[in-house]
């Protein structure tokens, strides 16, 4: 359970950071916004994949 909470807190902190980045670049070029959007989605996907691996590992143990 503790590692799950840690993962969730990490995801929340990543989202907070993403919001900060997004708000700071919102007035900039659309290409840069797309780059930031893709980067954020990749980070979130990687976090989700790690969570899934952790869940599978816990179930198999």
| Helical residue percent band | over 70%
Q: What overall geometry do the principal axes of the alpha carbons give?
A: elongated
State the major sheet. Answer: none
Radius of gyration, CA atoms, in whole angstroms: 15 Å
Outline the low-pLDDT stretches.
none
Q: How many angstroms separate the termini? A: 14 Å
Count of distinct strands = 0
Q: Averaging pLDDT over every residue, what do you get? A: 74
The secondary-structure class comes to: mainly alpha
Number of helices: 2
Strand content: under 5%
- What is the total domain count? 1
Query: What is the string of SSEs from the N terminus onward?
Result: HH
Task: Kindly describe this structure.
The chain is an all-alpha fold and 61 residues long. The protein has one domain (2-60). Helix content is 90%, strand content 0%. The longest helix is centred in the C-terminal third of the chain and has 31 residues, at 30-60. The radius of gyration is 15 Å and the shape is elongated. The mean pLDDT is 74.
Keywords:
61 residues; single chain; elongated; 2 helices; mainly alpha
Brief digest:
The protein has 61 residues and is mainly alpha-helical. Helices cover 90% and strands 0% of the residues. Helix 1 runs antiparallel to helix 2 (30-60).
List the helices and strands and how they pair.
Elements: H1 2-25, H2 30-60
Helix pairs in contact: 1-2
